[in-house]
Amino acid sequence: MTASRSIDTGGGRFADQVVLVTGGGSGIGRATAVAFAAEGARVVVLGRRAEPLAETVELISAAGGVADAVTADITVEDDVRAAVDHTVTTFGRLTIAFNNAGAVLAGPLTDLDRAAWTANLDLTVTGTWLCLKHEIRAMRANVDHGDGRGVIVNTASNLGAHTVRAGMGAYVTAKAAVSALSRVAAVEAAADGIRVNAISPGPVDTPMSLRPGETPQDRAARLRDASPLGRAATRDEIASAVLWLASPGAGPAIGHDLVLDGGASL
Ligand code: NAP
What we know:
The protein is α/β, with parallel strands linked by helices and 266 residues long.
């Protein structure tokens, strides 16, 4: 579990904001949910498993923040609609969404089976689109205070629109689509006063970036020469970038895909 942060009860950058985080029970999603709550937001975390979501809620509550959990599968439209409705019913509105749920499907293109390929696209591409669809519809109901009706950040990857890797074709293809989807959503939603952007991390210090059989120490050794930065990003560093994109200070950022890979894809 991410170490708890004390909650800013004196307002905070995200006071009055209601944030939905998909994949909020672990890794980057949990760190970002905790970071938003630490700056005053009320947060709803979404995932398929109740237990990790409850741990995130507990982390936030223990630090004095406000959070709730909703179990949902983002590939199921009724689940996504219900999760967005739950957020609005519980906290009055939805103003920020971080569409971050994802998974890796590895293997050479010639070895992948069709069912796994389709499930991968369903999760990463269709799941992100379904979230965008229902989040944008909900955000349209918000009053525009001059800084817009809402902000959405989607998690793509540097493996996708920015670089490719053998053996990662399914993931690369799906994440490239998330980058493209984010740009289309950005130009469509801008007229509603809703900003949509993406982040494209390189390796982050979560189990997802470990190769089969690899320890975190092995990963550190592998990454030393793999980018100018020479290490994985921390999940808190990624969270901090998401918070910036979601903040009013990032007002001109629309359709941006923020690459956070320590220069690996340069
Ligand atoms: P993680 O800890 O495995 O988080 C993935 C989350 O997605 C889990 O909490 C999982 O919860 C949720 N999820 C998966 N399928 C779902 C579904 N159908 N419906 C709802 N929730 C679902 O991995 P992470 O490292 O934090 O990665 C988060 C995002 O960053 C992913 O999109 C990943 O592709 C991207 N990313 C990660 C890295 C990296 O190095 N870690 C690099 C670039 C991009 P449940 O299993 O409970 O549903």
